[in-house]
Amino acid sequence: MASSCASVPELVADARRLFGQVFEGETPQVAVCAPGRVNLIGEHTDYNQGFVLPMALPLVTVVVGSKISGQDVTVVTATEDVDEPHRVDFSLPSDRSPLCPGTPSWANYVKGVIQHYRVRPLAGFRAVIASSVPLGGGLSSSASLEVAFYTFLQQLKPDDGDKVAKALACQQAEHTHASVPCGIMDQFVSVLGREGHALLIDCRSLEANHIPLADPNLIILITNSNVKHSLTGSEYPTRRKQCEEAARVLGKASLRDATMKDLEEAKDRLDDVTYKRARHVIEEIERTAQAAESLKRGAYKEFGKLMVESHNSLRDLYEVSCSELDELVSAALEVEGVFGSRMTGGGFGGCTVTLVQADSIDRTTRHIKVNTYTHAVITSGLL
Ligand code: GAF
């Protein structure tokens, strides 16, 4: 069954096999997939209208399925990590009434995407989901499910193909059906990411630039702390509110419009925690813009230094790291040939991302395995 090493054809084969078992020998008419992502730099900046620099991963969510007559929907997940029922049955509402979230919770992403799909009416369908994106690993398993499902619906009833509108609809699905007030980064890169490229996204204008990253001398290494993170708790929404409060006190529409000078001038009117959150965001937006320039020039040392600054800021100012992530980053930075390392994604667990010279990859993974107590799984060495 699906593992984080499974290739797309293997995942599709798994999903097709399960589809045949569940639906009595039927063959699915459609197979689609969408990638997870790793964020190289620009953390917690997207909902502050700043820059982010993620890249799509070869870890994907696959959906196979077929349209059926009537309004009934059956969806089955092949994901073994799910500790809720693996099958959900429901009917599509016949009018515009909402498709409410419920249990199992994984199905809420599917319901949310149906709710925000931009063309009506939809016919019933049967589908199976399989994924190689680790759940709760900070590599956007939820966005890849949303985008894969949206792509599946496009095959059943095409929309106008507008990619930005697709990412925004998937983000809405997460807001309304998973109760995560996320930014746009994950859905955006899952829709628009390109192999061998990072994607610099301006989350205010929604302009996106592909930056080539297919240097044979470079590896992007992802290590999983195996601490499962969940953004549905209070921490992520609290961070978002603190940023909005800081922007309000500074008299700005968002922290994207604020400078460190603005922040220092307003320091007396902000409590310590709100000041720290805002400082992280203002500096991280600037770091991300600089990092994108470094990457374009192949200046990996500079890029790596910015990654480390980003990690330290997420640890000390934004307070979204954890000891296991800090340990993985410290171990990576001890190895010669490592340019930089940081936690990636929302935090509170999940993965780290490390930029490493290709000829140092073996000693880096060995050193991390021997010197961390977290039994880190090397998820993927890319490029
Ligand atoms: C999660 C969110 F979904 C993103 O929108 C982003 O805010 C990220 O955390 C932090 O950078 O992945």
UniProtKB/TrEMBL annotation:
Residues 275-302 form a coiled coil. Residues 18-67 form the Galactokinase N-terminal domain. Gene3D superfamilies: 3.30.230.10, GHMP kinase, C-terminal domain. GO terms for cellular component: cytosol. The keyword Secreted does not apply. Residues 108-193 form the GHMP kinase N-terminal domain. InterPro entries: Galactokinase (IPR000705), Galactokinase_CS (IPR019741), GalKase_N (IPR019539), GHMP_kinase_C_dom (IPR013750), GHMP_kinase_C_sf (IPR036554), GHMP_kinase_N_dom (IPR006204), GHMP_knse_ATP-bd_CS (IPR006203), Mevalonate/galactokinase (IPR006206). Belongs to the GHMP kinase family. GalK subfamily. Pfam families: GalKase_gal_bdg, GHMP_kinases_C, GHMP_kinases_N. PANTHER family: GALACTOKINASE-RELATED (PTHR10457:SF7), MEVALONATE KINASE/GALACTOKINASE (PTHR10457). PROSITE patterns: GALACTOKINASE, GHMP_KINASES_ATP. Keywords: ATP-binding, Carbohydrate metabolism, Coiled coil, Kinase, Magnesium, Metal-binding, Nucleotide-binding, Transferase. Residues 291-360 form the GHMP kinase C-terminal domain. It comes from the Eukaryota. One of its GO terms (molecular function) is ATP binding. GO terms for biological process: galactose metabolic process. The keyword Nucleotide-binding applies. This is Galactokinase 1.
